[in-house]
Design goal:
The chain is 71% helix and 0% strand. It is mainly α. Helix 2 crosses helix 4.
Length: 216
C-alpha cells in the first residue's frame, strides 16, 4: 500500500484518480482553488474533465467513478478552497506573495489583479475560475485587496459551481458519446486550457478599458 501511494504523481490527474477516485477531486480542487504555492502546481481542469469521462458508462479502461460523487466533491472542493484562500489572503497573504520567487505566481497575481480592476469584483470572481493559474491566486488576492466578504462569497460560489460542474458534465458527455475517448484525454485537456486562456489573451491585446473598473 505504501509503495502504491509513493508511486502516485500528485501533478497527474490520471494518477490521482486511479489511486483515490472522487476523493482526489475534492482534495485537489480544494487546494487548486485558493492555496497559494501548493495549489499552484496541482491539476484542476486536467482533473475534472478526465473524472467526468471516467464516470461515463461507455468508458472501458481506467477506474469507473460515480458521477454524483465526483460532482459533489468538485463543488465542495471549489467553494471551500476559494473561501479558505480568501481568508488566508486577508490574514497574511501579502507576506507570502512578497517572499515568493516564482515568476509564474507573480505573473498570475498580476493578471488576477488586472482582472479585478477591469471587470469589477463580481465578473472577475466568476470569470477567474475559468483561467488556469489565475484561479489559484484570485481568491487570496481578493482577500488581500479587501474585497467585501459577502460579495466574494456569493460570486465565488456561483463561479465555483459553474466551473466545476460544467467540466465534469462535459467530460461525462464526451465519455458517453465518444467510445475510446479516454485514450485521448490529453488532447481534450489541452483544448480546455487553450480555450480558457483565449479571452484573456484577446483582452490584453485591446489594452486597458478607458471606462475603468466596475467595483460591484
Amino acid at each position: 500500500m505504501t509503495g502504491a501511494l509513493l508511486a502516485v504523481d500528485p501533478t497527474s490527474g490520471d494518477s490521482l484518480l486511479a489511486a483515490f477516485g472522487a476523493l482526489a477531486v475534492l482534495v485537489v480542487v480544494f487546494a487548486e482553488s485558493g492555496l497559494l504555492v501548493v495549489g499552484f502546481f496541482l491539476p484542476g481542469d486536467t482533473l475534472l474533465l478526465p473524472a467526468g469521462v471516467l464516470c461515463a458508462a461507455g468508458t472501458r479502461t481506467g477506474p469507473h467513478l460515480s458521477l454524483w460523487q465526483v460532482m459533489v466533491c468538485a463543488a465542495v472542493g471549489a467553494v471551500a478552497g476559494a473561501q479558505v484562500g480568501f481568508l488566508l489572503g486577508r490574514h497574511g497573504g501579502r507576506p507570502v506573495l512578497a517572499r515568493t520567487r516564482s515568476g509564474r505566481l507573480r505573473s498570475a497575481a498580476a493578471r488576477g489583479e488586472a482582472l479585478l480592476r477591469r471587470y469589477g469584483y463580481r465578473k472577475a470572481i466568476v470569470l477567474g475560475r475559468f483561467v488556469p493559474l489565475v484561479r489559484t491566486v484570485l481568491s487570496p488576492l481578493a482577500g488581500m485587496l479587501d474585497v467585501p466578504t459577502r460579495t466574494f462569497t456569493v460570486w465565488q460560489i456561483v463561479g465555483g459551481v459553474l466551473w466545476s460542474q460544467s467540466l465534469v458534465l462535459l467530460g461525462y458527455w464526451l465519455g458517453a458519446a465518444v467510445p475510446g475517448i479516454e485514450h485521448y484525454l490529453w488532447l481534450l485537456v489541452a483544448g480546455v486550457v487553450v480555450l480558457s486562456l483565449l479571452p484573456l489573451l484577446l483582452r490584453s491585446r485591446k489594452g486597458p478599458d478607458p471606462r475603468g473598473p466596475d467595483p460591484g
